[in-house]
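User: Please predict the structure of the protein below. I'd like the answer in structure-token form so I can feed it into my own downstream comparison script.

Assistant: Understood. Taking the following sequence of 337 residues as input:
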Amino acid sequence: MAVLYITSDRPAAGKTALAGALAAGLSGVGRGVGYIKPFSASPQDDPDVAFIARTILLDENGAPQQATLPMPEGMAEGQPLAESMARELAQSIECIAATRETVLVEGPDISLSGSATLADHLGGTVLLVICYEPGLSAERVIQACQPFGQRLLGVLINSVTRYREREVRQGLVSAIESRGVKCLGAIPEDRLMASVTVGQIAQHLDGHWVLGEEKAHDLVENFLIGGNIMDSGLTYFGRMENKAVIVRGDRPDIQLAALSSPTTCLILTGGHEPIQYVYHQAEQEEVPLLVVPADTISAAHALDAALEASTVHHPGKLERFRELTEEHVDVAAIQAL
């Protein structure tokens, strides 16, 4: 049995995405894989556990593998994990390992100082995910690694800004490894990973569906505001793919211009319903139409919060992160466990 304990330097650094990508990859080469998230703020219906269970890991009876406990109150203050809880978690892992060769443990991030203690209790090899930010230094990475000692397999740097990729690969990675820590890879940021679905947009903007609700799970990577433009519609709207266009509901001319290029959805603002010609054209192009009460600028600003809350809980995102992992991560070193 191999236990891989995945942790990170902060929340939303990519632990679930990595666990899902590794689970999918290992399953694809015939390796039995189990998954557990020891602690959660919502242990009965944790969204990470539910997503991985229904997307990748089902046991023979179709029941999802999950054994998640409430987050211990004292863990944030570095209090030791209760022996009874440690035994319960170890038993959960043993139960999963009885039918699986590899168990992936999505541990809490290291801002909870008990994370390293938990890794010791569970006896796993540790993979630390570091979320890239400008100014990230090798010293900070090494400091984050120290609590895990010999259990550390290596670090993975996630979401590297595109124009910093070369600097990170040639500078930061070398500096980390010169200090004796293996860097398993550096994954570049990706628009798809930060995307939201058309359904999430509708919910966030309190919109109602005019057309295309069956496409609620389609992902939107880019947003364009449809206003008075000097360029032709095809030139302006054709410069982005996988886009939603936010446009006044009483401007059918701009709406039709947006429909002249591939568009994921139209967001019609101001509570105005589309005219019949726009409806017909959108139906022909299979483009969903949403009507929202907010004005165009307010709707655009409101979407910032939706993008900040974006998660990996979509099969298309998981597949994309798996591709990024295979391209930029030393997966062989992980599979060697």
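That's the full token string. Residues 30 and 285 are 41 Å apart (CA to CA).
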